[in-house]
């Protein structure tokens, strides 16, 4: 026997958010307010840092969605948006906390023959490090490199 789905118990804004995400697949502040029999401003205050309004789409997003991905680009957009609307200052503060550390040149390694290194760079490397003139060709379609040295 298949039982009907249980009616969710909604006691907090977090419960209402989970139900709304399950029902609509997005953060819908008006629906959250309806479920909590409250107004949207109160619901947003209760949710705190668990939702953010994306300045590029004007849609509300969960913190895990908003504070991931291209966070450097999102920070630039949030900073620009906070100039015209101070409500985005909280986005800026949260995004600054999740910025990745910049890599130092010593943190980056590349193997000779990596497909993203242009042949001209390999030629320059050979000339500088080995004092050898080379002609490097890379056939991308079959992943073949050929290196010829000058006599």
Low-confidence stretches: none
> In order across it, which strands form the biggest sheet?
1-2
Class by alpha and beta content: alpha+beta
Q: What portion of residues is helical?
A: 40-55%
Approximate shape: elongated
Q: Tell me the radius of gyration.
A: 26 Å
Overall mean pLDDT score?
92
Tell me the fraction of residues in β-strands, as a range: 5-15%
Succession of helices and strands: HHHEEHHHHEE
Structural features, described:
The chain contains seven helices and four strands, in the order H-H-H-E-E-H-H-H-H-E-E. It is an alpha+beta fold. Strand 3 (134-139) and strand 4 form a beta hairpin. The longest helix is centred in the middle third of the chain and has 14 residues, at 71-84.
Summarize the structure.
The chain has 151 residues and is α+β, with helices and mostly antiparallel strands.
Topology diagram in text:
Elements lengths: L12 H12 L4 H8 L3 H8 L3 E3 L6 E3 H4 L4 H14 L4 H9 L21 H11 L4 E6 L4 E6 L2
Antiparallel strand pairs: 1-2, 3-4
Helix pairs in contact: 1-2, 2-3, 5-6
List keywords for this structure.
151 residues, alpha+beta, two-stranded antiparallel sheet, 7 helices, 4 strands
């Amino acid at each position: 026997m298949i039982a009907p789905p249980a009616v969710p118990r909604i006691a907090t804004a977090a419960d209402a958010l989970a139900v709304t995400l399950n029902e609509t697949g997005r953060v819908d502040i008006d629906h959250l307010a309806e479920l909590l029999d409250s107004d949207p401003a109160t619901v947003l205050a209760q949710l705190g840092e668990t939702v953010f309004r994306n300045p590029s789409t004007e849609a509300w997003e969960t913190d895990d969605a908003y504070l991931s991905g291209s966070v450097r680009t999102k920070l630039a957009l949030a900073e620009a948006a906070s100039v015209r609307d101070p409500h985005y200052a909280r986005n800026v503060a949260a995004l600054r906390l999740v910025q990745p550390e910049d890599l130092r040149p010593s943190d980056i390694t590349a193997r000779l023959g990596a497909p993203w290194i242009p042949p001209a760079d390999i030629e320059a490397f050979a000339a500088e490090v080995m004092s050898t003139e080379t002609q490097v060709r890379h056939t991308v379609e079959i992943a073949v490199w050929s290196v010829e040295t000058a006599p």
